[in-house]
Design goal:
The complex is a heterodimer of chains A (482) and B (452). Chain A is of the alpha/beta class. Chain A contains 15 helices and eleven strands. In chain A, 39% of the residues lie in helices and 13% in strands. In chain A, helix 8 links the parallel strand 7 and strand 8. Chain B is 42% helix and 18% strand. The chains are: A alpha/beta (482), B alpha+beta (452). The structure holds zinc ion.
């Protein structure tokens, strides 16, 4: 399993061809995805056309950059012109967008070869990809287990060697958690770092576009190619994009790493606790100063998130009414009846649950107690982090309280929601956070180390993660799929 | 009836939606041209496709700030958009991006005159929002089997102003709307075309005991000549709770204080100020000044005419108010330009009267010909031989003949009935075919009769 930087280096030297590599990946998808269930749509023809164009550029010694010819997968939440974009939902089962998301435009401009669209929890609501309306996705390390979610298809594709890199979205942990479950890297950049234009909204103030990769160098490449201001997204940050790859090798000597007490409490799997503490020891050995810090509002994160995210979702999903596009269930006696029938048939139970929660939270008489109050808590959580970042440069913590669970294991919604307890705070504050593989439990399931950084300081996160990755053997180990 | 009228008073507040005169929509780049084929002016953003995001049209903000300043509203240092939710198929996202708790501007007023008495009507707030699309039903609304949606209007920038309940009569409400429209036109903020829906008005009407400061039960009266609003009023029955919350896809708009001040400094002269200036600078009666300042185009027309013939602004005002406006609609901004009579030509006509070339009576004929042909008045006068007879010798002969033919008038005059001279003057004018200079004829008749 080769990384993007290894592949494109081989393309440049003429040791591999973009078309040959694309064909290899498509063949592997054809052979393995029946079992893995990572892809909802494979864009074979488009992928091969893009690979041929990349190949011509390499032959002319004029590649577009370090992603030219790189085979990548996209979560089915990003609009792709002419290619159906389902969001894992019946209501958009046949929806074909008339435009490309900014992310997709930027990847195409960088020469990336898009292999297809990956499975996800419906409208990104879930932590296991079990809420997809179409299929189950399996964890490449243990097919009986979930890949995490909601970007489970993208995580499984990269971990299983069905894509060299991928993009997902992280709203409450939807990239970091599946990255941890599947033993790959997942980076949620600062809110606004990568444009959301063309990302089908779940919770607008929490949605982040986020890459998956096999290593930190690839992560830096994927971020560099897609970050930066977009005039089509009013919340995108207008700040220069640094050279993330160049900054990787600086090491961690002199950096201060904070360890938040609240991330190591009850509910944390002891094997994860041990692995993460061992990872922190590695950083200490590499020259970082380790400090205990406290983020007292951590315990309010999940509750706050489950007010804000459903509230915004109830609004964002109001447009799926059967009038303009997507599913329409005919036979309604009037308009409201048609809309009700369409939404009843088009949305799955988790989406309905959250739309109802969110509608309630925004209703007159409840707004102040729920949405208004949640926004205040968000400010408090942000202050917690500001205080911590006055003392340390990055925070180190587990990504998840447990390793990948079995399909059907978490049928209680609350138990599922608690899986996001460590990823939600960085989502609510918009702070950059990354999950890096930091070992395996006794059953050989991957464990993720989470690093959280200051606003727009992805460079430091990547630098710490790179130093750790280079000092440890984890990335050598890959799941056996045959 | 009269007992009720003394115990209760009507309280009216007006909500006016004005389409801002921008080239593109509020949150996307689509054009706003009226009357284009259905759905030809749409894009994924204004159709509310999955994944799209709004971006604020800066020009719309600028125009709204201009209006806010003209009405003396306080422009808030920061304002915010909010989502207003209800299900209706002409609204692509099933929420409308509007402003709620943090509007663009608050607390101003509009000054107007009702029956010559000045009134100041409070304006509570001004905010920005996007328009919705238009439903087209096959046949009658109640029995239509299907409906089609045209999203050309969806996302067109609107400015909503909410007046305080300071209006008491329908006449006051009409005067408010007229004055409001005139200000927007003068500012170039809205084209004011009510037929095309660029200006729409809803009224909140209630009754309350005279002297009370509390509002009674409110009745909302929609612009009932429009199906659209009837339907909207009906659809609102379904959802009174709009579940407003701050639009997370847009950051709060920060208003730069220096920019607001420079916008204020650049405001054009508003109709009311211009009217006052017309009274003081040109000596016009307030009524005439009011008519001439109804629209910027009309006031500009008047001042262009005055520049061409500065000696007689009053006569120019009279010609416009009593003659020109009989032919063109004062409220129609473009009609005056289409009348065919340029300000310079109207000034030329008044000049011909003032220098004695033609009489006022002849001038009306010349005016009629100008309307028909657009010709220069001097050319018409020359070609038609309409120049006044101001030759004293020729006039004397006509006067003598008239005196000879009117023995009775002469006798009356001699017996002290000086008004009898008018009959002689009339005879002379008639004999000259209206071309005799009336002032000269009058003087000659007086002289000759006095000498007899
Ligand atoms: Zn548009």
């Amino acid at each position: 399993m080769r990384t993007i930087h290894e592949l494109t280096a081989a393309f440049a030297k003429g040791e591999a061809s973009p078309v040959g590599v694309a064909e290899d990946y498509l063949a592997r998808i054809g052979a393995l995805d029946d079992r893995l269930g990572a892809y909802l749509t494979v864009t074979r023809d488009d992928a091969l056309a893009a690979a041929r164009a990349a190949e011509a550029r390499y032959r002319a010694k004029a590649p577009l950059g370090p992603l030219d010819g790189a085979p990548v997968a996209l979560k089915d939440v990003f609009c792709t012109r002419g290619v159906r974009t389902t969001c894992g939902s019946r209501i958009l089962e046949r929806y074909v967008p008339p435009y490309d998301a900014t992310l997709v435009e930027r990847l195409k401009a960088a020469g990336a070869v898009i292999l297809g669209k990956t499975n996800m929890d419906e409208f990104a609501m879930g932590s296991s990809t079990e809420h997809s309306a179409f299929q189950l996705t399996r964890n490449p390390w243990d097919l009986a287990r979930v890949p995490g979610g909601s970007s489970g298809g993208s995580a499984a594709a990269v971990a299983g060697g069905l894509a060299a890199g991928a993009f997902g979205t992280d709203t409450g942990g939807s990239v970091r958690q599946p990255a941890a479950f599947c033993g790959v890297v997942g980076l949620k950049p600062t809110y606004g770092r990568i444009s959301r234009y063309g990302l089908v909204a779940f919770a607008s103030s929490l949605d982040h576009v986020a890459p998956f990769a096999l290593d930190i160098t690839d992560t830096a490449l994927l971020l560099a190619a897609t970050a930066g201001h977009d005039p089509l997204d009013a919340t995108s940050v207008d700040a220069p994009v640094p050279d993330y790859v160049a900054a990787l090798a600086s090491g961690v000597k002199g950096l201060r790493v904070g360890v938040p007490d609240e991330y190591f409490g009850a509910g944390l799997d002891p094997e994860i606790d041990r692995a993460v503490r061992a990872a922190i020891d590695v950083l200490r050995d590499l020259g970082a100063a380790i400090e205990r810090v406290s983020l007292p509002t951590t315990e309010y994160g999940v509750a706050t998130y489950y007010v804000v995210a459903p509230a915004e979702a109830s609004s964002n999903l109001a447009r799926y009414d059967g009038v303009k596009y997507g599913l329409r269930v005919p036979g309604g006696k009037d308009l409201i009846d048609m809309v009700s029938r369409t939404r009843a048939a088009g949305f799955g139970p988790e989406v309905k649950r959250r739309v109802m929660l969110g509608t309630y939270a925004l209703s007159a008489g409840y707004y102040d107690a729920y949405y208004g109050q949640a926004q205040k808590v968000r400010t408090l959580v942000r202050r917690d982090f500001e205080k911590a970042f006055a003392r340390v440069d990055v925070l180190a913590a587990p990504t998840t309280p447990s390793v990948a669970f079995k399909h059907g294991e978490k049928s209680d919604p609350l138990a599922m929601y608690m899986n996001d307890v460590y990823t939600i705070p960085a989502s609510m504050t918009g702070l950059p956070a990354i999950s890096v593989p930091c070992g395996f439990n006794g059953s050989g399931l991957p464990i993720g180390l989470q690093l959280i950084g200051r606003p727009l300081d992805e460079a430091t996160l990547l630098r710490v993660a790179h130093a750790y990755e280079q000092a440890t053997p984890w990335r050598q180990r890959r799941p056996e799929l045959s | 009836m009269s007992a009720v009228a003394t115990e209760y008073e009507t309280v009216i507040g007006l909500e006016v939606h004005a389409q801002l005169a921008t080239r593109s929509k509020m949150f996307c780049g689509c054009p706003t041209t009226f009357g284009a084929p259905p759905n030809s002016q749409t894009c994924p953003i204004c159709q509310g496709m999955p994944g799209v995001l709004p971006v604020v049209n800066r020009r719309a903000v600028e125009l709204a700030v201009r209006a806010a300043l003209a009405f003396g509203l306080r422009v808030n240092p920061a304002c915010r958009f909010a989502r207003k939710h209800y299900y209706y198929p002409d609204m692509p996202k099933n929420f409308q991006i509007s402003q709620y708790e943090e509007p663009l501007a608050e607390d101003g007023s509009l000054e107007l005159e009702v029956d010559g008495a000045p009134r100041r009507i409070g304006i509570q707030r001004l905010h920005l929002e996007e328009d919705v699309g238009k439903l087209v039903h096959e046949g009658d609304f109640a029995t239509a089997l299907s409906s089609l949606v045209d999203y050309n209007r969806a996302g067109v920038p609107l400015m909503e102003t909410v007046s305080r309940p300071d209006l008491r009569t329908p006449e006051e409400a009409a005067a408010y709307l007229k004055a409001f429209r005139a200000v927007l036109l003068a500012l170039g903020v809205c084209d004011g075309n009510m037929e095309e829906g660029a200006l729409r008005c809803d009224a909140n009407i209630s009754l309350r005991p005279r002297g009370s400061t509390e509002l009674g039960t409110k009745v909302e009266i929609k612009n009932l000549n429009s199906f659209r609003n009837v339907q909207r009023a009906l659809s609102k029955e379904y959802a009174h709770d709009y579940r407003y919350f701050p639009e997370p896809d847009l950051v709060p708009l920060q208003m730069d204080a220096a920019w607001v001040e420079s916008t204020r400094a650049a405001l054009p002269e508003l109709p009311r100020a211009r009217r006052q200036r017309f009274v003081s600078q040109y000596g016009l009666p307030a009524y005439d000044a009011g008519i001439l300042t109804q629209s910027t185009a009309l006031a500009d027309y008047y001042e262009a005419a005055v520049r061409a013939h500065p000696a007689n602004p009053k006569a120019l005002a009279n010609w416009i108010t009593s003659e020109l406006l009989r032919e063109v609609d004062a409220a129609d901004d473009t009609a005056i330009a289409r009348s065919g009579i340029s300000p310079a030509r109207l000034a030329g006509l008044v000049l011909l009267i003032d220098d004695g070339t033609i009489s006022g009576k002849i001038a009306k004929d010349v005016f009629a010909r100008m309307l028909a042909s657009g010709e220069d008045p001097a050319a018409i006068v020359k070609r038609e031989g309409l120049t006044q007879v101001a030759d004293a010798g020729a006039l004397e002969a006509l006067v003598d003949a008239a005196i000879a033919a009117n023995a009775k008038a002469v006798a009356d005059f001699k017996s002290g009935k000086t008004a009898a001279s008018r009959a002689v003057v009339g005879q002379v004018m008639k004999a000259s075919g209206g071309k005799a200079n009336p002032a000269m004829v009058d003087r000659l008749v007086q002289e000759k009769l006095s000498r007899m």
